[in-house]
Amino acid sequence: FYTDVADNEDFLPLVKTPTEAVGLKAASLPAPQPSTALQNISLKHPWTEIQNTVYNICGSKQLWGNNENVFSFDEFQEHPANLDEEQEAEVEAGCAGQFSLSCVSAFSAELLLNWIRKPRWRNSGFPGSHEELSRERNPMDKVSVLQQQILTLTEEVKSQKELVKLLHKALEAAQQEKRVSSMYLTAAEDKDRLELVRHKVRQITDLTSRLEALEQEKKELEQILTLRDSHIQELKEHVQLLMEKNHAKQEVIMALTEQMARELSDPLQEDNTVTAETLYKQQEEIEHLKDDIDAYKTQNQFLNSEIHQVTRLWTSVAENEKALLMKCACLQARNCQMESKYLTVLRKLQEAVPDLPSSHAELVKNLIQESLQWDVKEEAEEGFNLNPVSEYDEYGFMTVPDYEIEDWKLLAKIQALEIKSNKLRSQEIVEKPLRDRWNSIGELNPSAELKSLIRSGIPVEHRQRVWRWIVSRHCSRLPDHYQQLLQQSRSTEHPACRQIELDLPRTLTNNKHFSSPTSQLIPKLRRVLLAFSWHNPAIGYCQGLNRLAAVALLVLEDEESAFWCLVHIVENLMPADYYSDTLITSQVDQRVFKDFLSEKLPRLMAHFEQFQIDVSLITFNWFLVAFVDSLVSDILLRVWDAFLYEGTKVIFRYALAIFKYNEEEILRIHDSVEIYQYLRFFTRMIMDGRKLMNIAFNDLNPFPMKLLRNRRSMHREELEAELCELEQIKAAYVKQRAEQGP
Fold first, then answer.
1. Which pLDDT tens digit goes with each residue over 265-317?
2. What whole-number distance in Å separates Cα of residue 494 and Cα of residue 477?
3. Beta strands in 32-86 (DSSP E)
4. Which of 436, 425, 399 is nearest to 328 (CA)?
């Protein structure tokens, strides 16, 4: 107890000495004003005031006692019952009179009352009184009583310290209020007093707002507490439910456990008894099964090793086969080259036949006939084929067309051999990677990569799908439109019907699907051309449309798809009036092509001008039918792939590329007749389609479409002016003849 007191001697902080006037100075001051409730307390000697206040409350017989509290209340033992109400009233009155503070006085008074009431039970029957100590003869009992007394007094001292702290806070508040009141009373002017009052009002308003905020926060906390209580109640109910379920499950488990125990306790049936003999048999079976498992493991290891060896052998065979196939392809390519060189030598000898003896000339003719009549099927029957050139390609075109001129047939055979040789040599390097890239493409979308792939050539297995996609992007198919056109062509004969019937037998005569009048594609081609003549009455039918529609039928197979492909070419790709009666736009393109030929190949164009060669006699048909019947099918379809995707600019590119491909050969010819003869079949001299494509899309750059449009516009104006002048001359001539008479 003393240790605690020593440790807490300075628990009450010192109150600063007031600086007001005292002594003679105070006597010289004017008479004091009537005292207020705040001035009843002397703040100079706070301890004395507190003691006097307590003394007045208690009736003061003894202020200090031995081993007692700082404030002794033993006098209350004599009349504890009669003085309760009077003491409480007096304390309340005293506290209310002396501590009239804003927020602390009521609480301090109540705590003081509780503190006054607290010692009564101690005085009435305190366990450590002298009477009890005298009664206890045993020293141990006395020690226990004293320890209990010490604990009680320790708790009482703690409560008294709390009270003193509260009184100290009340005293500080009273001093602060006194200072403010003194400032108010000593203020010289009403203005200063008014400012003090306003300051107090602002403080009161601030405290009021804080009080309201605290009340609002209290309400919110009460609501949150209510919600949490309800949530806790729900959780309790849920826990109760789970406990009930758990209890039920435990009961079920106990019941099942009891049932199982009863079953195990029952004597075993005869069927479930296992004799020693049965156990011995089962043991033997287990041993046999283990032996079988070991045998299967050994066999599995052996089979795995065999499979591994077979796999190695198969891999080696596959690699050897691949190497042999590549070697065979190289041999076939070399064979094609040798045969083409052999045919070239025969062609040169054929040119020199008039100068050879008759026996030699006859030998050369026989060799040429034998080379042209070499049947591939005979070699295939022998099981050894070094000639990979078949009679027809994938779309039914003859690899060696049946020309009437023997020299042309020889050139066609040489070209077919060279093309096949180039394809075999580029199979692993170019064709296979290109096919793999096409196989990796799923949905088609316009892009630079797709454009590059289309320019390189679409593989046969992907060409139909890509062409359908290109046509559908530019032509919106009308439902049943094609069938309606066919119905119209059946009911009414179109004026172009007779011309269509005349052109059908002359369409792609080097293709087996159109070579005979009974071919299956002939009726389809007829229906497509008739439907287009009704679809576009401004054009109706023009010679050349039959070849365009025939190529579309060969690739797309469906006649309605071929019809829309023809619509896309005529109405979207080609300029207007390209297939009109006057073919004015076709003539304009020939003049534009001559301009490009002068710019891209100036030496060749100067050579043509020197010998007065008009290239439009050769190229007009190229532009009108997009190289059909001019290029071999392998190169033709690559041109069409890019033509359908990019437009007529591709025709200009390939036309210039064909002349550049054979430029040196043409420059060696110095006779106009020979030049014309060479230009009739010089497209058959193109052996390498990849080289031609590289010339068209790389060597001839730049080739802007804007330049092509400007040239077309310029030459169209010139041509229309020339035609108008020609019409005027014709009209004047007719008029002059009419005036002269018969």
1. 665 544 455 567 788 888 888 988 888 898 888 888 888 888 988 888 888 78
2. 23
3. none
4. 425
Give the span between the Cα atoms of 434 and 424, in whole angstroms: 14
What's the 3-state SS for 114-129? HHHHCHHHHHHHCCCC
Instruction: Give burial (CB, 10 Å; 0-12/13-18/19+) of 287.
Output: exposed
Q: Rg of the chain's alpha carbons, rounded to an integer?
A: 62
Number of CB atoms found within 10 A of residue 82's CB: 9
Q: What are phi and psi of 511, to 5 degrees?
A: -115, 135
Average pLDDT rounded to a whole number, residues 78-92:
40
Of 321-325, 669-673, 729-733, the least confident: 321-325
Pull the structure tokens for residue 284. 């033997």
Q: Distance between CA 605 and CA 560 in Å, rounded?
A: 43
Structure tokens at 305: 């090793």
Global pTM value: 0.54
135: its two tokens: 């009664």
Which tens digits make up the pLDDT trace of 404-416? 666 666 777 777 7
Q: Which two tokens stand for residue 514?
A: 């159109």
Measure the CA–CA gap between 668 and 604, rounded to whole angstroms: 11
In this structure, what token pair is assigned to residue 609? 């001008």
pLDDT tens for residues 683-718?
A: 877 888 889 999 999 998 888 899 999 999 999 999
Which ranges of 540-630 does DSSP label H, i.e. alpha helix? 545-556, 559-568, 584-600, 602-610, 616-625
Where do the domains of the chain lie? 178-260, 578-624+660-741
CB 544 within 8 Å of CB 624: yes
- Tell the residue number behind the tokens 């209510």, with chain if given: 226
> In which residue are the tokens 């036309």 written?
655
Residue 527 CA to residue 522 CA, distance in Å, equals 9
